[in-house]
């Protein structure tokens, strides 16, 4: 009944109004499709930028804490104390990094060397052992594991970083 009523109304419209309606509907559809495409592109691109940025940050974090994981640094008490202080300062600085929820430094044996959590009450699932190098989007966050290596390519430990997706959701 509605369809036949609409069909009758369209049939009785002058050709000029029919053409205007066709142009209006086509233009509206094109705008909606183009906007959807731009939003999808922006979402995917920003997600990839987050991954790239977090990988770079974790790699640099690993370079800063490497002396504390290197057994050769442990040969001198002063060298080890300086390396441990560097780790503490580096992980304390994570407070200022927007979006960082959890960061963990594991040694080569998988033991936790140091730990940073923005909010201990969140109860997020955090790893108890290092995982393979790479990233994953899990439970509303971006998780990155990155190995710390010496000059010979020997794995000294692993850095884990968990970031929230608030920036992505805001877009």
Describe this structure as you would to a colleague.
With about 170 residues, the chain is of the alpha+beta class. The chain is about 50% helix and about 20% strand. It is built from four helices and five strands; from the N terminus they run αααβββββα. It has a five-stranded antiparallel sheet, with helices on one face. It starts with a helix and ends with a helix.
Low-confidence spans: pLDDT under 50, at least 5 residues?
A: none
- Principal-axis shape: rod-shaped
Radius of gyration: 27 Å
Order of helices and strands: HHHEEEEEH
Helix content: 40-55%
Number of helices: 4
Biggest sheet record: 5 strands, antiparallel
Average of the residue pLDDT scores: 85
Strand content: 15-25%
| Distance between the ends | 43 Å
Structural class: alpha+beta
Give the strand line-up of the largest sheet. 2-1-5-4-3
Number of strands: 5
Features:
171 residues; alpha+beta; 4 helices; 22% strand
Concise account of the structure shown:
This protein is an alpha+beta fold and 171 residues long. The protein has helices at 2-12, 15-69, 77-92, 166-170; strands at residues 100-107, 112-117, 134-138, 141-149, 155-164.
Write the layout of secondary structure elements.
Blueprint (H helix, E strand, L loop, with lengths): L1 H11 L2 H55 L7 H16 L7 E8 L4 E6 L16 E5 L2 E9 L5 E10 L1 H5 L1
Antiparallel strand pairs: 1-2, 1-5, 3-4, 4-5
Helix pairs in contact: 2-3
């Amino acid at each position: 009944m509605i369809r036949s009523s609409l069909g009758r109304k369209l049939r009785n419209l002058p050709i000029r109004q029919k053409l205007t309606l066709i142009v209006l509907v086509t233009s509206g559809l094109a705008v909606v499709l183009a906007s959807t495409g731009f939003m999808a592109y922006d979402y995917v691109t920003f997600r990839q930028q987050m991954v790239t940025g977090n990988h770079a940050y974790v790699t640099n974090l690993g370079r800063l804490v490497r002396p504390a994981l290197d057994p050769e640094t442990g040969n001198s008490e002063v060298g080890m104390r300086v390396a441990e202080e560097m780790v503490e300062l580096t992980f304390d600085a994570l407070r200022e990094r927007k979006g960082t929820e959890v960061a963990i430094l594991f040694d080569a044996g998988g033991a936790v060397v140091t730990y940073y959590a923005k909010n201990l009450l969140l109860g997020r699932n955090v790893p108890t052992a290092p995982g393979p190098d790479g990233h994953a989007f899990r439970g509303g966050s971006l998780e990155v594991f990155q190995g710390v290596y010496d000059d010979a390519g020997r794995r000294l430990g692993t850095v884990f970083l968990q970031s929230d997706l608030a920036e992505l959701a805001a877009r």
